[in-house]
Amino acid sequence: MTQNPTQDDTQTLAPQPDLGRRKFLGTSALVGLSGAGLTLGLSACNKETAPTAAAPAAKGEATAHGPYEVAPGKLDDYYSFSSGGHSGDVRIYGLPSGRQLKSIPVFNTDNLVGWGITNESRAIMGTKPDGSLKYSTGDTHHVHQTYTDGTYDGKYFYVNDKIHSRLARIRMDTMECDRILELPNVQGFHGTFTDKRDPVDASINHTTRVFCGAEFSTPLPNDGRDLEDGGKYRAMFTCVDSESMEPRWQVLIDGNCDLVATSYDGKLAATNQYNVENGVHYEDMMAAEMDACLFFNVARIEAAVKAGKTTTIGSSRVPVVDGTRAANKDPKTALTCYVPIPKNPHGVNISPDGKYYACSGKLSPTASVIEHELVLKWFDGGLENPRDAVVAEPEIGLGPLHTGFDNKGNAYTTLFLDSQIVKWNVEAAIKSYQGDKSAKPVVDRIDVHYQPGHGFTSMGETKEADGRFFLSDNKFSKDRFLPVGPLHPETAQLIDISGDKMKLVHDHSVLSEPHDSIIVRRDIIKTRQIYDLDEFPLAVKDAKESGVFRNGKKVTVKLTSQAPSFSLREFKVKKGDEVTLILTNLDKVEDLTHGFAIPKHDINFIVSPQETKSVTFIADKPGVYWCYCTHFCHALHLEMRSRMIVEA
Ligand code: CUA
Ligand code: CA
Q1: What is the per-residue pLDDT across 304-338, written as a single tens digit (0 to 9) for each?
Q2: Distance CA 640, CA 32 (A)
Q3: Does the C-beta of 594 come closer than 6 Å to ligand 1?
Q4: I want to staple 108 with a disulfide (CB 3.0 to 4.6 A). Which of 88, 103, 434, 513 is the partner?
Q5: Residue-level pLDDT at 44
Q6: Which backbone phi and psi does 71 adopt, to 5 degrees?
Q7: 3-state helix vs strand vs coil in the chain, percent to 5
Q8: Centroid of ligand 1 to alpha carbon of 563 (angstroms)
Q9: Of all protein residues, whose CA lies closest to atom 1 belonging to ligand 1?
């Protein structure tokens, strides 16, 4: 123990391969103590690890675990990436446990990690000329990952902000947002989906585009013209380059966009439309018996863009093509195809075999099944009426919204009004539509609690749909949890869909208000535990580089953290200085994160191993300010401080 606590720690404790805890105790919590000659923290740690009589050791588990339970020390089979709604973040859950693992700040500010506080995060979020954040609110709805060969590749995922029409990208190795784009000339950016391959170039068998549907129509440009004349409002569908995060093109449409889906062959993108009426008032939006599912012919749109058959709107340079009905009457040249769907549909999802789109009625108790090949046939001039692409329209229940698929040809649709999930068979629905009276599309129903919005199956939006689980994200939890005041949590309910009958596995509570999620097999996700110093241009690579560097009123403070201390025990600035503080965490140990808070200056952020962040603030109050480590890191965490002295 005296010479090398790490080694000593491993030797004295019985090996328990399942518990990584000792590995961490032997490294992260003790790092730094070895050289300091401090045994006090060490003995406390050893005491903590020893199993006590009351708590059985991991070996002889006292509790029998159910088939779905993730036992202590075990890992979940799936990640669920779930939008946070108007909290503006994205959450990561483990499934089947339902344990919340992380909240990724995206459009919101986050006090813990310093998102919206550090200079690096503010640059991604976007600032006004005075340096303040352009927006501090956001509304995330749909999360979709990059694909390779029809399944998730673990590279990026994208999420929308409906409030300010922004698209964010999150890199999946660090689970952090790295880009945010504000779409030009649209409002109510709701549905989004990554493409799965290129429609023309067969060698591009991965995601290169992200499609974004605008739900609200506005005057174009929205600069004060056409304020009262709703007939002149229009919505657009936008294609963004998944790598550069720049808009490639936009399509002017009739009606609106809601959810978005993409085909497995890359040829079509789809959006359901609930407002073909182009209604400005609520009642107007329910006037038509038939709305639509709108298909975009990606290759033709890009050919039109290349040929310069475009306009631009306002100050935006993004090329806009005309996808309105009037301009696309000839199927053989059409960029868009409007397939009539009853009434105010919500949700469009493609089956894992790539053959069918399910578009639910919402105000009609039906799900419409649209055959992919028939839409392509219409674009080739071989199908007279777009409606003929509908090959089934089973009655499935009241308020149908979103559909997930298994790997056996079954669809699972959320029924908002019935508070149920209905399982229906696609081939049976097609036979029934063709007049086969013996075909029974609906296979099973299960109650959920209550009013489901989105629902999704494990790997269900890939060709590797595995038919194990359906997750129902419900809009009301009512009596399912302990009451916590007028604002209830939401319920997410996990349903086993592997057998003939659906089985409710459990409820877990979710903070308001998730909309959509993808359920991803854990082997697809490869995260990093340690950053690379070289990724950060400002990195303070050696504690010796620390110091206070003055340039007039602008002062740069460089410091490093290494448990249990900051490289500068104190630093001096003068009242009125604009201080930029750069902190690099030089610890290389997994899970050894430090925090940095500056009292009375509204600064708080964390730095994970080998990470660098910076903040800029005005030191406007003379005095002493104890900057301290906010993130528990070490037995001497409380002592880990640096004294900021602001001279009058
Ligand atoms: Cu460093 Cu707590
Ligand atoms: Ca309508």
Answers
A1: 999 999 999 999 999 999 999 999 999 999 999 99
A2: 12
A3: yes
A4: 88
A5: 33
A6: -65, 155
A7: 15, 40, 50
A8: 6
A9: 594
